Amino acid sequence: MNYFGFLFYNNKHNFIILSLFPLHLFISFFIDGADKLQSKLNEIEKESSAIHSDIAVNGILALLFGPRGIQHFIYLDIINMLQTTANGYLNILSNGGLQLGLQSLQTEETKPSLKKSSGNAPDLSELSQTEDKIVKSVYIRNSSNNYSERSLSQLSGGQYRRVSLALDLAFTGK
């Protein structure tokens, strides 16, 4: 039977045999270790594949929802649903003479910072923040059955009340 041993060199230049193993046990020990390493490598490759798949899905979602995320996507969808519902009510209230347009505009505002500078005085450097504002437009059907845009301030009292009532009904869902 063949044996394999671990040899070490001591300070007196003598070889010391720490242990002897039958060669077939030594080889099977390394084969088992190699099998365990291969199975661990397979697990890591599966995890890597799952991570790459998640990255691809996140990239697709970013394209679908836009750079501002799902919250902004939902916000825009709600504005669209509100506009559609309000226009349904407004069509009934005005016999098709008024239509409402809702649009989200991103504005940039500059506000003073609330950070503390050195000492106790606040740092009044300006911070830029973006906000979404909903712009309301009303379209009035004229004698040639075309719609012309007007602001809310240009409406008559009755038209303004119809638009307000349609928006209130759309908000409450009644």
In the CATH classification, which architecture of the largest domain applies? 3-Layer(aba) Sandwich
Helical amount: 40-55%
Structural domain count: 2
Give the assembly state of these chains.
Answer: single chain
Order of strands in the sheet with the most strands?
A: 3-4-5
- CATH topology category name of the largest domain: Rossmann fold
Given the structure, what is the number of helices?
Answer: 3
Radius of gyration: 37 Å
Annotation, overall tally of beta strands:
5
Q: What is the first-to-last residue Cα distance?
A: 92 Å
In the predicted model, the low-confidence regions spanning at least 5 consecutive residues are none
Write the CATH homologous superfamily of the largest domain: P-loop containing nucleotide triphosphate hydrolases
The main β sheet shows up as: 3 strands, antiparallel
CATH class of the largest domain: Alpha Beta
Inertia-based shape: rod-shaped
Mean of the pLDDT scores?
78
Strand percentage: 25-35%
Query: In sequence order, what are the helices and strands, one letter per element?
Result: EEHHEEEH
User: What structural class results from the helix and strand content?
Assistant: alpha+beta
Question: Main traits of this protein?
Answer:
single chain; 174 residues; alpha+beta; Rossmann fold; 3-stranded antiparallel β-sheet; two-stranded antiparallel sheet; 49% helix; 29% strand
Structure description:
The protein is α+β, with helices and mostly antiparallel strands. The protein folds into 2 domains: 3-63; 70-113 and 125-172, P-loop containing nucleotide triphosphate hydrolases (Rossmann fold), CATH 3.40.50.300. 49% of the residues lie in helices and 29% in strands. The protein has 3 helices and 5 strands. The chain has a 3-stranded antiparallel sheet. It has a two-stranded antiparallel sheet with strand order 1-2. Helix 2 packs across helix 3. The longest helix has 43 residues, at 23-65. The chain is rod-shaped and about 105 Å long. The N and C termini lie far apart (92 Å).
